[in-house]
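Subject line: Sequence and fold of a protein, written as structure tokens
Area: Proteins and the way their chains fold up in space.
Start of record: The labelled sequence and token lines come straight after this line.
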Amino acid sequence: NELVLQLVSTFDLIGGSMGGLMAHQIAIATRQLSFPPRRIVLIDPVPPVVGAALDLQRPAFHISTINLLNLMRRAAGRAINEQEFTEDNTKSIPSPELIARATQRLVAENILKDSIQSTIKFGRHAQVFNHILWLARQFLAQRRPLSSPSWQTLLVLASQRSEFFSSGADVGATFETASIETARLYGCVAKELLLDGSHLTIVQECAVGENGVFMHVLRHFLHELDSGTHANSEVA
């Protein structure tokens, strides 16, 4: 609605992980207003179909907090830790305590200032991440069929996506439904890029513009569709 009110003539959408699913759903919503996007960029999006029952009562706040923690590290040019807090069995750690511990680690790494305001701000961002995860899990639990898109899609995939979504994220995925083939069900893939690495690393590198191959392909994808030339698949 805001895009329509602002009289934006054309727009593109980009989303990574859970944000990929959200970008796809936003595109569907705007198409219903006769205002679809020109292009969508999906960076290793959550599997569009589920293969196992989803426990919506199971808290997933630790996943959101760890993702945000590592995204801030990546933006600061630091190494990420995909196994953060595993020694503590994070599922049993209350949210406020987890926020405080994550903030302390960012302070120790000179990424955040040591202040109450920094802790509050980090906590708010983590809540937003958690809400996005909750929305995606709610949608997936309903097992709705995907709508056929009318836009062009750049699909970026991590080579190790199946391992992450089938075991590291509570989105009802199995190894099979988290496959590269299933990701193509988002449809209208004008260009596909396969990057070697884990889900978290690829999404975070692309999100902060740190992956040179992705940035190169993205520029060509935008240029090709503007000029009407043909796009193809690439593996890196």
In short: Strands lie at 12-16, 39-43, 152-158, 189-195, 233-235. The CA atoms of residues 100 and 116 lie 10 Å apart.
